[in-house]
Amino acid sequence: MPVIERLRAREILDSRGRPTVWASCKLSGREPCSTSVPSGASTGRAEAHELRDGDARRYRGLGCRKAVANINDELNGLLSRRSFESQSDLDHALIDIDSTPNKSRLGANALLAVSLSFARSMAASSGIPLWKYFAGLVHADPRTFPRLTINLFSGGRHAGSQVAIQDVLLVPSSAQSIDESLAMTYDVYHSAADLVKQRYGMRLLRADEGGLAPPFRTSEEMIEAAMHAIQKAGYLPGKDFRLAIDVAASEFYCSNRYNLDGEELDPPAMIERLVCWIDRYPIVSVEDGLSQEDWQHWPHLKRAIAARSLIVGDDLLCTNVGRIRRAIDTGAANALLLKLNQVGTLTEAADAYRMARSARWAVSISVRSGETEDDWAADLAVGWQGDQFKNGSITQSERLAKYNRLLAIEQETKWPFINWPETGSSER
Question: What is the model's pTM?
């Protein structure tokens, strides 16, 4: 059985210049393997606790020295020289050592960094690519690539809240490969950049995930601009490109009302607005269309749009098996947005994945707004047979690292895309 010889960690900076955690794991007789973990901006209330230092004099309290020290000291002391039969063996040891329901003692950022660096070390020691190791954790046999959902325009928490909804994303649906998807998206992105300059008279200003962020007056104007950019690039909306939207409705929900760009909408009116958008635009994925605590109305949203669009839970579900079970039982969604750092270990994320698949849900593997140039998320999207991979835009090195990793896997495997969304987004 593999024996951990040493764990090491340090504080590094993510794509927003905020601290995050880097960790390495050395198995006996092997070279150390390292991983860095991301951090979110728009976060769900049920997410595992990301440990920050709270010292306002340093990084405005966002430092990660405590999480780093927890790896270098307590976790290294308790786990080094111990053998672990499997990933779940290691992850359950991490959970037991932390001993809190939400990873608040040691920090989910510390635990995930160790979990992932152990995974990378195990893959390297077995001489297999990381995606294949990930596949083994959920007994998957991947033979397809996920469709890309690529950030074009941003609002909400990612872009200073100039409009309410968070992202409008491109789904290059006529593309036959990762390579073709990126080339097509490049055309549309730069058409959008030209549109921004002509219509708003402004240079390129990018949001956290690389999306363009001009001063749209309304969320629908942002969707219309995406349609125009697709057409301006010479493509057909609804054929060559579909759209996905990340509404992130929790960010503009208060007192049972949705403040959508200055309009006060009750939940039925918010659902009707989403239905109107789906009627008018080729939207095949709606993420967090309602608030994370508006459980009463999520089933109504699902009944209204499930025949035409995925109903994706992010803040609603937080990669949490309890919340996923509730959503399955109440008919609240038909797709899981899976983020490892929402739950804290690979094993717990695998449990969430299996539960979603048991309900015949789609799964979208997602990165976070604060990313690093580590590319493990691309391997996860392939190994766990994601229907979608949500990685941000086609700018900024922390995003491109993952796309470039997908290109490398594609060159090695020659696999096709999963059959989505060409078959429509039927009830799951």
Answer: 0.95
